Amino acid sequence: MDARFLKLITDLQLHLQAQKNVLSSYTVQVKPDKENNLVWIKDHLGEIGQTSAHYEVRLEDDIIYVEIHFEDKNISNRQFFKHSGDLPQNIEPFIWWDTICYRYKRTKVYKMTDADILDYITQGLLTLDRFLGNHVRKVLSRLKKAKI
Q1: pLDDT beneath 50: ranges in the chain
Q2: Angle formed by the axes of helices 117-128 and 3-17, to 10°?
Q3: How far apart are the C-alpha atoms of 16 and 121, rounded to whole Å?
Q4: What are phi and psi of 47, to 5 degrees?
Q5: 100 pairs with which residues across the strands?
Q6: Closest Cα partner for 96 from 108, 80, 110?
Q7: Which of 14, 40, 63, 87 would be 91's cystine partner, CB 3.0–4.6 Å?
Q8: pLDDT at position 84, please?
Q9: pTM here?
């Protein structure tokens, strides 16, 4: 993992804890994957943050992305899908490893060195949670009940 990205993620956890909203209880989960510059983020209820659904902040080609991913191969990720008409313009669906995921759409390209990068990430997490969080948690709850 890029040392600059790791520093950004350390700063992000502190920034999240200082928020006066649900983000103060979000948890950054650094994966021991030295090949990738990404972290999963667990929501304030501990429901979003697993393979089946997790927020993700990742660095690719020096650009920061804020996304929500659905990567459990045993679950049809179509259950998490919301039609674009139900989402604001700043959330866009995209394909990641043959699954539909969502990305907080940037108004500009954000790099790690941008002065407002932490605000961009927190705004992205808030927006994804506001428009997708409850829907995703309902799907996860339904799936959990079906396994019992």
Answers
A1: none
A2: 60
A3: 10
A4: -95, -45
A5: 95
A6: 80
A7: 87
A8: 60
A9: 0.89
Predicted local distance difference test score (pLDDT) of residue 76: 65
Task: Cite the DSSP H helix spans in 32-92.
Answer: none
Q: Report d(CA 71, CA 76) in Å as an integer.
A: 9
CA distance linking residue 70 with residue 8, whole number of Å: 24
Amino acid at the residue 54? H
The pLDDT score that the predictor gives to residue 83 is: 61
3-state SS class at 126: helix
Token representation of residue 41 = 């983020």
- Which of 38, 88, 77 is closest to 58 using CA atoms? 38
47 exposed, middle or buried (CB, 10 Å; 0-12, 13-18, 19+)?
middle
Q: Which two tokens stand for residue 8?
A: 């950004």
Find the farthest-apart pair of alpha carbons in the chain and give their distance in angstroms, rounded. 47
